[in-house]
Amino acid sequence: MNATLIAVALSLVSAGAYAAAAVAQARLAGRTEASTGVLRLLGRGAWWSAVGLNAAGALLHVAALKYGPLTLVQPLGALTLVAAVPLGARAAGRRVSRTEWRGTVLTLLGLGALLLAAGGAAPHDTLSLAEALAVGAVTMALVAVLSRPGARPGLRHAAASGLASGVASALTQTLTVATTDRSGPLLSWRLVTVALLVSAFALGGLLLSQTAYRGGLGAPLAVVTLANPVAAAAIGVALLGEHLQGGAAGLIPALIGAAAAVRGVILLSRAQDRTASVAAPRAPEVRPSSRGVTAQAVGVARATDALPLRAEPVPGP
């Protein structure tokens, strides 16, 4: 079988596992207070179910990266959004809104355009130790900026999660290619360092996505799905010798796809805000009733009339 077809097939199954994991994380985030720490999450079975699904998706993703380049495998992760949005709506007991469908379709079309611009050759180049450390340092700085307190924490944490996951994928490809081509020792400083960075970014991306899903699933997952392939493809093009189909002309569909994907994220974000406002419980409004006040006044008057009357002695002169 063609290596590209194997990469696509593995990526499809990986996207399904990631979609189920995202829904499980979103449901857990909806039942978890914002102040809940990591240690409390470790004691919940739902958390470990999500971790297991993410691990299955990651293993399939690693296998796909053995047969396909980053610019091909990463955009296929957009299929996670196709499965997760309806699954999330079903878990919440509602239908997928028209705005959610429009946002999902636009995001997928945009990422599809990025996929058409991707190269299709199997990966051969790997990151050097200096390149891996530089990528790790830049990624940590960007994640720290995106994770700072402020407005729209869900989308910013989602962007940080997608960035960390995309970099983990790029580093994983280096690890996979270097360990399977048998061109060097398996316990070199480079591979050990890359393995540690992969673990750190994979775990960081998982925790950041858990925080991002507290406000809902659609928009944060779309941001994760968009940031992940963009980060990985940037590393592939800049450092691993990968290229876009058609050369400089391939940038045109890529830019159009990026614009469509951003529009889709905006629509999903609006749909999420509307769903949250509808689902938010409203406090009962207490209004003064003139009828109730009148009845209360009559009751007081009747109680006053019922009091016994006594003649008070009048002091003499």
Automatic annotation (TrEMBL):
It comes from the Bacteria. Residues 1-19 form the signal peptide. The chain crosses the membrane at residues 45-65, 103-122, 128-146, 158-175, 187-209, 221-241, 247-268. Keywords: Membrane, Signal, Transmembrane, Transmembrane helix. This is DMT family transporter. It comes from Streptomyces flavovirens. The lineage of its organism: Bacteria, Bacillati, Actinomycetota, Actinomycetes, Kitasatosporales.
